[in-house]
Specification:
By secondary structure, this protein is an alpha+beta fold. Helices cover 20% and strands 23% of the residues. It is globular, with a radius of gyration of 17 Å.
């Protein structure tokens, strides 16, 4: 996957675009959006919000690694292993936590900045069927124009909420275009006390 400049973080067929920028005090630390056709992911985007990562609480390599790893993980088809921020760390970035390093004494001692063996096994299971053919071309030919051009700038454009964690700090939204074609957006919200009263969610 070649790097490059994509200032709008527009989706590109057959790729995952990974971007960061000062997206504002809109409440989210990171979002991952995936376009699917049936069981196939056809494209994806990940965005990290530097507006929050410039704050002392999140301006650490541990928080950046945790959020980036999890959102990119979603674009490859990984789901959460645990959605409780206060549980003991599982040693996976797909596990929510209040302490990605595992050193603050709040979530046990395991580090949640990287994938763990379970994540790699999940990826192997998801992609074990791949061969020399691809469905990317066929997927885009049947993509409705509204799906190709969907605006994902904020919660009002993310579609219908389909899942929210018990503490409200994670969400999944979905646009369903029928015939198995969907756009899902996974959100990690900043702690409400860090939103500075913006009322984003």
């Amino acid at each position: 996957m070649a790097g490059g400049t994509n200032s709008n973080c527009d989706p590109t067929l057959g790729r995952v675009e990974v971007c960061n920028g000062a997206y504002g005090t809109n409440g989210w630390l990171g979002i991952a959006s995936i376009w699917t056709n049936g069981q196939h992911i056809t494209q994806g985007t990940t965005k990290l919000n530097d507006t929050y990562f410039s704050q002392a609480k999140y301006n650490t390599s541990a928080w950046r690694n945790f959020v980036m790893c999890q959102e990119v993980g979603h674009t490859f088809g990984l789901d959460h292993q645990d959605e409780r921020f206060t549980n003991l760390n599982l040693g996976s970035c797909m596990d929510y936590t209040n302490d990605p390093t595992g050193t603050a004494g709040t979530n046990g001692t395991l580090n949640n900045e990287h994938p763990n063996q379970h994540d790699y096994e999940q990826l192997e299971s998801i992609y074990a069927h791949l061969d020399s053919t691809t469905t990317v071309g066929a997927s885009t030919n049947s993509m409705p124009p509204a799906m190709a051009n969907v605006n994902l700038d904020g919660p009002r454009q993310w579609g219908t909420p389909v899942k929210t964690s018990t503490n409200g700090r994670t969400s999944v939204y979905e646009h369903d275009f029928g015939a198995g074609q969907k756009v899902a957006t996974f959100v990690i919200w900043a702690d409400p006390e860090d939103e500075r009263g913006n009322g984003a969610h």
